[in-house]
Amino acid sequence: MKLKQIFYLFILLIFIFSGCSSNSGEKKSEYGKMASPNSDAISSQNIAMQEKVEETAVTAGEETNNKAMAATERMVIYYAELNLRVKDFNKAQKSIEEKAKKYGGYIVDSNVFREGKRQIEGTLMLRIPEVKFDEFLRDVQGEAVEVLLRHVSGQDVTEEYVDLESRLRSKKAVEERLLEFMKNAQKTEDLLKISTDLSKVQEEIEQLKGRIKYYQNQTAFSTVTISLYEDKIVIPEIKKEDLNTWERTKKQFAESLNLLLTAISGMTVFIFGNLPILLLIVLAGIGGYLIVKKYKKKGNHRQE
């Protein structure tokens, strides 16, 4: 009797284990069916998530722009233009270039013009650290006999700078999300699509970084354009070389003689070449003169 009970119990346990294994198999098959469509939908999810990340980042950027504007130090690009009249152009130019280096600046462009033998003028374009801008202008004006023009202006780029930083943060957030998508991508098509989007975003990031760096440089250094004018009478030097008086005299005599011979030759050619015509003109003139003289005599006899 005990053996039968043990046997029935053993059969019951077998049925129980077989039922559990079938249920787990069904669950695994259902999970596999659910996983497949999720894998097929990666591409569309990636695009949707990318758009959401961009929208979220842009919204966050807009919300923080005002705070950043308040927290960021004003970024102003300064320009200055000076027209100076100086005693000695070369001395003033050299002194200004040395002062630019002393204040930590550098020369961008330099031009010198000479109008005839009297007026000398030139232009210097310099980049001076913004913190030394006012001090440099005061120092340079000391080189002038007369300040003809002084113009200082500034361009506030704080808003543009803060906007660039906000856009850069947004693009970096998109870049991070695309890198996560790339790690989870299973299909080659999805990988290529994400790679293309990532390349575009990274290119935009580099452009934004370049623009931000440009504004940083422009605000860190101010542009100063200086025009220098010098009124000076230039005394010519006495010529020390041989004047070649005798050679120049012989040359002038030969040229005069050649001119005279050329004139005589031309007159000879004209007279003898046109001799028939000239004879006719002379004969006609003589005939006309005789006729006029004859009529004058007749008129005188009638009056008598």
From TrEMBL:
UniProt feature coiled coil, ranges: 171-218
Alphabetic keyword roster: Coiled coil, Membrane, Transmembrane, Transmembrane helix
PROSITE patterns: PROKAR_LIPOPROTEIN
Transmembrane segments: 259-292
Superkingdom of source: Bacteria
Domain called DUF4349: residue spans: 74-286
Protein name (database record): DUF4349 domain-containing protein
